Amino acid sequence: MNYKEVLENARTCIGNYCKACNVCNGIVCKNSIPGPGAKGVGDTAIRNYQKWQEIRVNMDTLCQSRPVDTTLKLFGQTFKYPFFAGPVGAVNMHYSDKFSDMTYNDILVSACMENGIAAFTGDGTNPQVMESATAAIAKVNGRGIPTIKPWNIDTINEKMDLVHRADAFAVAMDIDAAGLPFLKNMTPPAGGKSVDELRRISEIAGVPFIVKGIMNIKGALKAKEAGAKAIVVSNHGGRVLDQCPSTAEVLPEIAEAVGSEMKILVDGGIRSGTDIFKALALGADGVLICRPFVTAVYGGEKAGVKIYIEKLAEELKDTMTMCGAFSLSEITKDMVRR
């Protein structure tokens, strides 16, 4: 099986909303929610993708060729590549019922671990979503990152207990999920958090705490003040607020402001190894990719995930070689043209 066949297989079972496009750029699904689309007119997801394409890479082959090292070290863990599978929840609502959140996470978490990376897992209004996600992470000796929605403190405490039992090496909160349409007026309640509230959650975590959903310097500084060890520059794939800037547009200024003090991850429209290279050149330590991993699971289960990881890895290695960077630390901002 190759990546083209993974996409073809996915189209037979992924549901009515996602079309498993050759390039997942948000144009076809646009504002389909439920489904993989974005909020409002749906332009933020499209903008996320397009802005990465506007950044070009600067080729330089006048250097001594060496083996390429794509290794990333993060919070005491060593990963083969600087990218992660992003969190997704309610797959049977947004895609099809071929998988539940439980079976989806079981496949994704183990496949990522076996191929040298890690998966962020999702959360949902159904308690079984977090229970199954943390169970999947426990099976791979904590090699995964549970992502908790911004619930009230009692619910967060319950979910943190699951995180601790799974021995996860880090935990995230997608703070921007407060804007998800299906979380409004839900029980338990979810919503934004003050710096003091976030600091308390960081302390409860007991492991490196990652705040996902940062889109400006002010938010990054607040996350740092609250004790976060990393942030994810993210607009939640355009699913929580219409008319947002793209993550590529805001990443450089955020990385310049806090990149020396905390780890910077980024998501949103990153679809190739070349895009990953661009993100690292603009100041990110690593990236998250979400929607295409869903397609990979639906199109080939663990084999599909492996094929997609290998595709990204080869594209990244090729770009690094052609730009004269043979380790992640050698990727610099002058290697891209904005």
UniProtKB/TrEMBL annotation:
Residues 37-338 form the FMN hydroxy acid dehydrogenase domain. One of its GO terms (molecular function) is oxidoreductase activity. It comes from the Bacteria. Keywords: Flavoprotein, FMN, Oxidoreductase. InterPro entries: Aldolase_TIM, Alpha-hydoxy_acid_DH_FMN, FMN-dep_DH, FMN_HAD. Its cofactor is FMN. The keyword Oxidoreductase applies. It holds the Pfam family FMN_dh. The keyword Flavoprotein applies. It catalyses: (S)-lactate + O2 = pyruvate + H2O2. Belongs to the FMN-dependent alpha-hydroxy acid dehydrogenase family. This is L-lactate oxidase. It comes from Sporomusa silvacetica DSM 10669.
